[in-house]
Amino acid sequence: MIDLEKLEKISSHYGNPYKETHFAKYSYIKEILNNFQEGKEVSSAGRIIAKREHGKSSFAHISDASGKIQIYLRKDTLKDSYELFKELDIGDIVGIEGSFFKTKTGEPTIMVKRMVLLSKSLRPLPEKWHGLKDVEIRYRRRYLDLISNPEARDVFWKRSLIVSFIRDFFQKRNYIEVETPMLQSIPGGASGAPFVTHHNSLDIDVYLRIAPELYLKRLLVGGFDKVFEINRNFRNEGISVRHSPEFTMLEAYCAYENYEYMMRICEDLLSSLVKRLYNSFTIEYQGKKIDFTPPWPKVSFSFLFKKEFDVNPDDSQGKVLEKVCGKLNLSSDELSRTQIINITEELIEKHYPVDKPAFVIDFFSWTAPLAKSKKDTSYILERFELFIAGMEVANSYSELNDPVEQRKRLSEQLKVEEELPRKIDEDFLESLEHGMPPAAGLGIGIDRLIMLLLNQSSIRDVILFPLLKPHDAKD
């Protein structure tokens, strides 16, 4: 319910509560507290989250994204502003100026000498808002979650730090950060159903990208040896605790290197990131201890599938489908990439300890049409996927740069992946025909990585505004 009556009362006695355009808040509350000095003059601003009136004086707490601080207000100091304060509600936003002191209990507090109402809240915070627990409200109204849950705020603070760390890691190694199109006339670079829309001026259908890979490889052709992009991708597929239709990826490419180089990059990046976050190489995820100390074990996909399903590297995709579905009693016309990943996750947990990240290698050639095969066999790829706590987090391979073989692979992909438009990206193939150096590529799912590093059970808990069905949508 909107409290227009209180708004009218405050407006008539004290003026428009939204008139202020500026207040001198130069630091977050946490920083102000960290620099506490008795008697020091400070200014701050934030949302009132608690107030206790004692006649001619009052205590309150105000908060911002970094924390909360206690303030002390006296009528003889504030005059009319004190009467205004008494009219304020939990949720209102105020600016204050004053000096530091400590209460008898030792709590740092600001003795308020000036108070300004910066914004009047018209809706009350939810009942029991201290630690909002309703998952539906937390996702739909993330602003309430951030107000009420310090843990949620901490997740998104750390998410920002993690992304900054990753960006800095690659820039220090002379990678240049680039931006590639999010609207593409032909989606490519991955498997997955795209979102489609129409460009009115050009009168063409365009797709939200499912991956930036083909454009990043064009840059290798153009002479940029090291490129990376932290990008938003979109896939019109299912939603789960590990899948979001809109997600963030890191993709990095390095000319004149192969997938083994990207293994070292992965180990270096993630182990140093964990060390920065926790001053240790060990984290806990959903009750499991995971040790990021390099080196990490390598697990053969080919060996796992031979052991479990009697699959051979030279078996056709149809033969593999027959053997796997027969063993698992599945009824399917094809094995999707998601199904392969799920089966691989189960096999890793079955046959290997999951207390360390693991590189899964030796994938069959038909599993990745953009990857280069090993020199000694055309049936096995120079490729790895990184699994952490049984979850796929990264994908890498030595990039296929043979334009004739690439055309053949992409043509075969279109025969089995019905969700992709029935078109080959001729411009990409033309770029390869000009010559692309041997290169390695790496993709890391940022959202999943953050789930793991911050011990969150759902991908929605690390995305500020996850896509949800509207309340008024019909099932």
Q: What can you tell me about this protein's structure?
A:
It contains 15 helices and 20 strands. It is of the alpha+beta class and 475 residues long. It has two domains: 4-124, OB fold (Dihydrolipoamide Acetyltransferase, E2P) (Beta Barrel); 147-462, BirA Bifunctional Protein, domain 2 (2-Layer Sandwich). An eight-stranded mixed sheet has the order 6-10-11-20-19-18-15-14, with helices on both faces. A hairpin with a 2-residue loop joins strand 1 (41-54) and strand 2. Helix 6 (142-148) crosses helix 7 (150-172) and helix 13 (403-416) runs antiparallel to helix 14.
Descriptive tags:
475 residues, BirA Bifunctional Protein, domain 2, eight-stranded mixed sheet, five-stranded mixed barrel, 20 strands, elongated, OB fold (Dihydrolipoamide Acetyltransferase, E2P), 2 domains, 27% strand
CATH classification, class level of the largest domain: Alpha Beta
Distance between the termini: 28 Å
Widest sheet: strand ordering: 6-10-11-20-19-18-15-14
Write out the CATH superfamily name of the largest domain: Bira Bifunctional Protein, Domain 2
For the residues shown, what is the average pLDDT? 92
State the share of residues found in helices, binned by percent: 25-40%
Total helical segments: 15
